[in-house]
Amino acid sequence: MAASAAVLWGVNGAVSKTILATGLPADRLAQVRSLGAAVGLAAVVALTAPARLRLTRRELPYLLVFGIAGLAFVQWFYFLAIDRLAIGIALLIEYLAPLLVALWARFVYHDSVRRRIWVALGLALAGLGLIVDVVGGGESVSTAGVAYALAGAFAYALYVLLAEHVVGGRDAVSLLAYGFAFASVFWALIAPWRSFPPGALTKTTSLGGNLHTFHLPVWALALWMVVLGTMIPFFLLVNALRHISATRAGIVAMLEPVVGALVGWAWLSESLTSVQLVGAGVVLVAIALAQTAR
To answer: Which residues in the chain show pLDDT less than 50?
Structure first.
């Protein structure tokens, strides 16, 4: 389930990039994503098991933090980081999150973290560094950009840890419905809907790259982003936490940049160097190693 979520997120990167190419601001895209996921997930719960929408006072603080500090802040800090850094460098820094989860498990929960998990984390980060070609980037690094990317890594780690904590007493769909609902409220306060760009979702756009001859309305791409790029992968990852630890789930999620690079090459005509292919292989080896640490 965690691997399937990572694959769907990797494909969603190209979908989101195609939408952003139409001129829709990144914060507005995150707003559409959060509200669409909240409405869709709430509808599923309301139709199948409405009793699961009941909320207790004890759960409320966790769900508020999960939705705002976890789901909303991950996107917000990422967008702030890529305004100041190359996307690849920002992505590499944010994928320090699995290491933060492992450190939390070891020193706060006092869990026994096997040595091969640390080896797998080191290999995965090294592989990600090769994929995004940090050394070859040659750009000056913004201190503020690094700070925002690190904040995104902490938000991602917090999201995984909170999901692991709450998932034992609440099903994944209602958990995510509340999380995205609180994230939507946050975005509505930051960027009110009354100022949303008119006609932004009704225009038609080319898919670009190797698919430039095909055109779709932006709302169709947004629907893909909400359902296949948000609702289903988040559901899969949260459900995966019922069966594997947050540390292992975080390592498996590192498949995302590998898939994203391959989709970018096949769809958006982005180039893949031999170094990047080696990096993808290293990440896959790290994931396989992590799976042996039962």
So the answer is: 138-139
